Amino acid sequence: MRGGSRSIPKPGPSRRRSGLSLPTTGRVLPAPPRHRGVTDPPPLEAELARARDLRVSELADAIESIGFECTRCGACCKGHEAADGEREPHTATVFPDEVRQLQAAASPGDADGDAGDPDSDIGDADYDWRDAARPMPYGVSEGAEGPEGETFEWALQVDDCGDCTFYEETDGTGGCTVHDDRPLICATYPFSVALGGTTQPMGAVVDSAGPEVPRADGPAADGSVDGEGMVRAHECEGLGRDISRAEAEELAATLRERAVRELEEAIAVRDGYEPADADGVVVHDSEGAKRPDGTPVDDR
Description:
By secondary structure, this protein is an alpha+beta fold. It has one domain. It has 6 helices and 14 strands. It has helices at 44-52, 56-66, 96-106, 129-132, 184-188, 245-272, and strands at residues 80-81, 87-88, 93-94, 133-135, 140-143, 146-151, 154-156, 167-170, 173-176, 191-193, 205-214, 225-234, 281-285, 288-290. The strands form 5 sheets. A 4-stranded mixed β-sheet has the order 5-6-13-14. A 3-stranded antiparallel β-sheet has the order 3-7-4.
């Protein structure tokens, strides 16, 4: 999934790519100290307040004006060929409670519990954490003894072809095996919300609508606007098709929920981050530092 996901700023002094936008993911990492007189980006808390103030009706108006109907082509669920000819795997952000929900949805039978609670029974079913999610690759490199590094999000797991592990195709028509429990990033694609701070969506924007977005960061933080609407549409063959008001409002409500959740997760990661003294790959999410299998680093 390109153009729809976001990354979480890497906190602390070990930040290596300050001021850069990571490819595919969409959050701009905090920049080095600015020159006097240049406005700093607003804190994530200010963006969260803006996200919570989003009006579903305005988002729905924007979605209606752009238009959308899923054609089940599967493009947003599959890997793609990069400019260098290499196969790039599907990459979509998933929150830790969503991973547990996917585990429960994909496992035989039902698991009791609350997916939002890391100590609940959900996630203990037959479907392993690593079957549903993998460490976001940004920040991870190949070391002498295998993959190593710190990353700050989970991505949906992929198969050997680089397609989402939950994607299936029958007679050329794509489908999701966990559609009712799919993550927010999947439920809202191809749309994203730009709030004017560090959470600018990445990827090619092919259309936009809705209220204009203020330039809230960088040298142009002068109250001007960036010329595009708050609701951004990314590459998808279903754009431009008729959508009912009811469907637009349902999608808008989910888009608002996603904008809020992304910022809540980012704040939790920022506030809870501590460098992990561990070998291999460590994923810092809103619940703490974890191994690639989803277990806390402190448990070993």
